[in-house]
Amino acid sequence: LKQALRRRSKIFDRRQSIPIQDIRDVEEQVIVQTFRTTLVSENLLPESHDDYHELRRFLRARGLDIDKAKLMWSNMLQWRAENGVDTIGEDFEFGEIEEVKKYYPQGHHGVDKEGRPIYIERLGKVEPNKLMQVTTLERYLKYHVQEFEKLLRIKFPACSLAVKRHIDSGTTILDVSGVGLKNFSKTARDLIIRIQKVDGDNYPETLHKLFIINAGAGFRLLWNTVKGFLDPKTTSKITVLGYKYQPNLLEVVDASQLPEFIGGTCTCPGEGGCMRSDKGPWKDPELLKV
Q1: Could you read off the pLDDT of 243-254 as tens digits, one per residue?
Q2: In a shared domain, residues 97 and 68
Q3: 105 and 49 share a domain?
Q4: Residue 239 sits in which domain range?
Q5: Do 61 and 138 reside in the same domain of the chain?
Q6: What is d(CA 211, CA 220) in angstroms, rounded to the nearest whole number?
Q7: Distance (Å, rounded) from C-alpha 104 to C-alpha 112?
């Protein structure tokens, strides 16, 4: 019986014009359905969140414990209501984005070999004090939430359509060249803690793998402090690499999907560089139509 429950079912979502392969664990399906029934009975399942994969992410974040997942889910709904998250895409305009990216170079660029979106940050080039001169912590957090909503509503679905397989997690690359204790100011610490809390509480289980590259001695000292703020499940997905990281990255990402400055072949000419291009399937107008 146990072996039968652990079988994985292969489902094709044919609601779209392109069928999407969706492999599910049969035992998890039973738990997700029970969780869904519980939420419906307590009026905790808005139509916009009635999604198998979203329910599963919250369950996985709480070790498939329905009561713990329900509390996390309820808190998420309250947070969304209090912060206007459902309409943040239309209501919030981050006009300072160009200046922000100058002092905090980051963004999505390409996909890994399994079709997951890649998110890159160049932490060694972050200037926290200058960043806070062109925006505020609260505005940056709103921008971060707005981008996460785009990831869930546009980028994951576009990636899924591109590879015809369900995608709901991403690969992150943090370039920490030059990062040490001097970079870990109070401003930087506050930003990391706030972002980590928002993500961990409201967007669980969306990280597939995180690569930290160019980690020198200074960063490794800092890492011992930073990882204390992270959830243990998150740290288990993190690989810290030194200066000879390219072979590790190229195992999971094709060179054409990596910017030149981290060992790839892409330069995104004419788009302001790779950190401003937002390269990915989500830029394909044909996929967006679907």
Answers
A1: 999 999 999 999
A2: no
A3: no
A4: 91-289
A5: no
A6: 14
A7: 23
